[in-house]
Amino acid sequence: MESPRPLASVVVHSPEELRCGDLLLRRLHNCDYLILHHYGCYAGQDFYGNHLVFEHRKGSSPRLVTFQAFALKYEVLREPVLNIDRKAARRRMLNLVSAQIGYQELLFNCEHAARYVAEGKSYSWQSRSGFVFLAACALLVVLARD
């Protein structure tokens, strides 16, 4: 059974405070009016000292980008995840990057990928909320016809 959705996330003031596998999120770009987030996982530093984040964006396969490229102009948050196996998270991260899996908004989006890396389970609260919203709209349409 999946753990309940965390109520509070912590602001990341510097990528120096992060560890491999930490679950990260920021507001979705150009989507200021909705409560949607872009998810990723902290990957560590490369040979040059750049802080890297694993992400899965629409139109691309899972990849590693710099912390700044992940953040864009938004505040980055770290969502608490209990008992992260950091070696397993790194392994899952590298497997997804090499597998070149396509992006699917409802079945395998950025949150699915990031939660799989951090927790070993692929799921998305945002997708579930979308399904509930669509079902509620469909029900309202049916009820309005009667």
How would you describe this structure to a colleague?
Mean pLDDT is 82; it is low at 1-6. This protein has helices spanning 67-71, 86-99, 110-119, 125-145; strands at residues 10-11, 23-27, 37-45, 51-55, 63-66, 77-79. The chain has a single domain (10-145), classed as endopeptidase fold (from Nostoc punctiforme) (Alpha-Beta Complex). A hairpin with a 5-residue loop joins strand 3 (37-45) and strand 4 (51-55). The protein has 146 residues and is of the alpha+beta class. It starts with 9 loop residues before the first strand and ends with a helix. The protein has four helices and six strands. It has a six-stranded antiparallel beta sheet.
Q: How many beta strands in the DSSP annotation? A: 6
**Gap from first CA to last CA:** 39 Å
Helix content: 25-40%
* Large-scale geometry: globular
How many domains, in number, for the residues?
Answer: 1
Quickly give the CATH architecture: Alpha-Beta Complex
Number of helical segments? Answer: 4
> Roughly what is the average pLDDT, rounded to an integer?
82
The largest β sheet comes out as: 6 strands, antiparallel
Alpha carbon gyration radius? 16 Å
Strand residue content: 15-25%
CATH topology tier name? endopeptidase fold (from Nostoc punctiforme)
Strands of the widest sheet, in order across it, are: 1-6-2-3-4-5
Structural class: alpha+beta
Helix and strand string, N-terminal first? EEEEEHEHHH
Low-confidence stretches: 1-6
